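Hi there,

I know you've been waiting on this one. I reran it after we fixed the sequence typo, so this is the corrected version. Both the input and the resulting structure follow.
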Amino acid sequence: MKELAKQTAEATERIEPMILAIRTDTAEAVSAIDENQAVIGEIHNISGTIAAAVEEQSATTAEFTRNVASAGEGTSSIAGNIGTVAEAVAKTSAGAGQVQQSAGLLSGMATTLEDLVAQFELTK
């Protein structure tokens, strides 16, 4: 009986550090997953911004097209439409700038996500 108790104690001493290591690895994995979720959330937000910018750019392009057609209807309305066309061009430019900025942010997020994923190490 004493020998069995001794063997049990020795086995417990050998297993305990393994269990602690598993707990530590699990906590680190949970933390990394939380970070990944945060990055994915930011990517989602940026994707929404890009989609809104593309939609605005499409609307601005359609408005620009309508304004050009209207300008062709008569020389008397050309002067009034030039201001509207300039505004549409400014909106298109602003939309393109937003898309470019969002794409840069998305690229940075992708790099961050790659770095986080690279931290995981597969063991057998």
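Quick highlight: The chain has one domain: 2-118.

Best,
R. S.
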